[in-house]
Amino acid sequence: MIEVKNITKSFDGSTVLHDVSATFETGKTNLIIGQSGSGKTVMLKSLVGLMRPEQGEILFDGRDIMSMGAAEVKELRKEIGMLFQGSALFDSETVLGNVMFPLIMFTQMSREEMLERAHFCIGRVNLKGAENKFPSEISGGMQKRVAIARAIALNPRYLFCDEPNSGLDPRTSILIDELLHDITHEYNITTVINTHDMNSVLGIGENIIFINKGYREWVGDMSQIYTTSNQALNEFVFATELFQQVRRYVVANGRRIQ
Amino acid sequence: MIITNSIANFGRYCMFMRRVFALPDRWRVFGKRVLDEVVKLGVDSIPLVLIISVFIGAVIAIQMQLNISSPLIPAYSVGLATRDIVLLEFSNSILCLILAGKVGSNIASEIGTMRVTEQIDALEIMGVNSANYLVMPKIIAFVCFMPVLGVLCIATSFIGGWLVAQFTDIITVSRYVYGLQALFQEWYVWYGLIKSLVFAFIIASVASFFGYYVKGGALDVGRASTNGVVSSSILILLFDVILTKLLLQ
Predict the structure, then answer these.
(1) For A20, B30, B72, B230, which has the most beta carbons within 10 A of its beta carbon?
(2) pTM
(3) The total number of structural domains that make up chain A
């Protein structure tokens, strides 16, 4: 479990996160949602230690990353996997090389054991046969799946995903969502996903935190989101006619607005 | 403003170097990366060095002949002057200014692209010291390979001058070769090698610094690449003066 307590982050005098608190539960897909510029990427980067908030606490199962020394942060990061918006695969390495990278750097496994583990992770994301291709030779969806395979190679306790569906078609987005959801439950990981994809919100949002203009506005799950009375959240989630119709249908079938 | 920016940049550069020169996480990976960089930054620069050196060697020989054609100056002086110019300045300072363009822009754009595509963030998240992992192999590889490029440059420049002697009538081959050997000072070779080592360090480290701290997108990577080349060129010229004063006087 990751607990965020009262974090505040500013850039050049402009506050991006205002005293935000949240809890990300283990074995669940935790979503941070919000409009572009709402502060969700800053929050995610603060969680993984790429940015340092001015105040607050970020507890990884009770361990505060803000008060750790460099060596402790380095150790903690071995328990973290991250999927970046642009996949962030190493261009000079093949798919297999990318997945093997954390194993080479941080384990004492023999080459055979590393290959076995890497092939298992590649198989887990349904990419068998693509091992020897370079990132530039595969599609965006495949790159995302390679990044997931790399992120889970070291059996992480925490998985962070920054807009995993950006740039993907709806069908591939759903596949990535299902993969993240399945992996979270299979390995009992604390998964934090930063997204503004409504299919993800309504599909895998087991714990949703809505950030609006740097403030935490709402917390709930995907079933509660249909009936929320929070105006900012409604305007954000049900911005399209399609999702408004879905909401009307859900409400018409007996669900009450909170 | 420029002065305060320069001081701030120098401070950041020093802190960056402190991160770069840490113990590698995995020595075997480090060794492999050094060899890869030797090929990419060093071996791949050989054709450029050879082409430039042979032509510049030829041009120096022709210009020396034009400038010192006097009955009071012995004919072998063409070979002697060509040798000393190549040893003292061309095979280190001028060569490194040229390599700052090729190798410096290569390093800055590679690391800058890794920054804007979040590959450096990915390394940091994994717990890898990205500055050490990416930059130290480049610096070690380029500094170690620079003497090879310098020696190749010297040899090819002499061949360029020899070709002029062979295929034109401005000087005989025997006088040119005699001039190359006459009044030889071994220290000039060491002086050139010392300078080239310092310049290689400047090129690799300064270009890496500008690439590593890129913010933004493709345009900023290009800007960082240009800044890396310009800054390392200016530093090469500055250190050329300092080292010449220290080593030759």
Answers:
(1) A20
(2) 0.87
(3) 2
